[in-house]
Amino acid sequence: MKIKERITIVLEDITHSGEGVGRVDNMIVFVDGGVPGDTVEIEITAIKKTYMTGKILKLIIPSGKRQEPPCPYFGRCGGCQLLQVQYDAQLAIKHKIVTDALERIGGIKDVPVNAVIGMETPYRYRNKAQFKISGKGVGFFAKRSHQIVPVEDCLTQPESCVQVIETFNALLKDGRFELYDEQQHTGFLRGIVQRTNEQGENMIVIVGNGKKLKHKDKILQAITERIPEVRSVYLNVNTTRGNAVLGRENHLLLGTPQIEERIGDLSFLISPNSFFQVNTRQTKVLYDLVKRMAALTGAETLFDLYCGTGTIGLYLAREAAQVYGIEIVENAVLDAQENAERNQIKNIRFIQGKSETEAPKLADEGIHPDVIVLDPPRKGCDPALLEMIKNLSVPKVVYVSCNPSTLARDLKILREYGYQVQEVQPVDLFPGTGHVETVVLMSRVDK
After folding, report:
1. 402 an active-site residue?
2. For the ranges 85-89, 247-251, 273-277, 398-402, which has the lowest average pLDDT?
3. 287: annotated binding-site residue?
4. What secondary structure, in 3-state letters, does the chain show?
5. Any binding-site annotation on 327?
6. Average of per-residue pLDDT across 30-50
7. Is 344 annotated as a binding-site member?
């Protein structure tokens, strides 16, 4: 094969990043935007030792799983990867991603993976948008690039994002902002963050390279007049050279310091930097699943490790005797303590530190967990934490994962430590993308 050579192939699979997968002469070909079942004419764009890449020139026979992407920016904007695939097929793809990871990495072939729990309406589900800014307007990063694709709407965001985009485009046009230059580290406006709740209330965060907001009154007037249900406007100061979206310093310019969100009967306060699952509706589905697997009777001691702002532990606390949440990020622990007070939950204690260090200290005090809930970052659990679970002989583990690969790796280790996988349940928190959450129930069989 040669670069720019044209061939016709049938695509057999798809990656989590939305690349169709075919084969030519026993060599894998990745085709951007392809769908399993497509017959396509492609042009070879790169040839590596173990694979090739190609781009679609002509869709000869479309797959029965293909749909017209409902977003006009799909293929340019990097936010979604699977909008060319019908939603039921998206769920099947995510099921296969989880199953393949468990079998290939974890060696787990004896436990069936449940069908992915999807959304009835897989759009307008995000409660947080991080808009990028360029001279062409408000948008998002292009695929595999820091080039910005201007947009007028985003189907993953609430409908009020249209007014946010329009408002800041008008302010940019009127010269109210000096744009930030990433290379030179000059200028002011780095981005806009919109946070919303299920009631449709908005928090607008202006991310600036400095503390002084020029034309503040005009900007606030435009925001409050054009964007519906604005409860808070912040200036977030981010003077770092890195690509972190938000800095640590916030100045409330208008309104209330926080907006409220609810999961079940619990209330949580959201600030600019608060961690909170971005799909509130599916988060309740996820937490109800954790609650079912934990099967608490009111007598158990629960450890909520990598607990973040404490949402899972708080959600389960009323069915446990005592809950201990451990989290390394100090601000998250402070938010968790505030959330506990707000919801008048007394039987939960939050500890700042590494889970693998703090949990054994509790055991030394005579506090042993009956159930551990794990919700680690994408890199998965620290090996020391998994060893600690073995040493404490914890009877039941509920593992919440956002990365099937590291989940499979950790489950393999826990199985070697005497744990058995009882149930695997994926949940779709991010329709249109290649991401999938998975909840796994494990029990100790080797005591």
Report:
1. yes
2. 273-277
3. no
4. CCCCCEEEEECCEECCCCEEEEEECCEEEEEECCCCCCEEEEEEEEECCCEEEEEEEEEEECCCCECCCCCCCECCECCCCCCCECHHHHHHHHHHHHHHHHHHCCCCCCCCECCCECCCCCCCCCCEEEEEEECCEEEEEECCCCCEEECCCCCCCCCCHHHHHHHHHHHHHCCCCCECECCCCECCEEEEEEEECCCCCEEEEEEECCCCCCCHHHHHHHHHHHCCCEEEEEEEECCCCCCCCCCCEEEEEEECCCEEEEECCEEEEECCCCCCCCCHHHHHHHHHHHHHHHCCCCCCEEEEECCCCCHHHHHHHCCCCEEEEEECCHHHHHHHHHHHHHCCCCCEEEEECCHHHHHHHHHHCCCCCCEEEECCCCCCCCHHHHHHHHHHCCCEEEEEECCHHHHHHHHHHHHHCCEEEEEEEEECCCCCCCCCEEEEEEEECCC
5. yes
6. 96
7. no
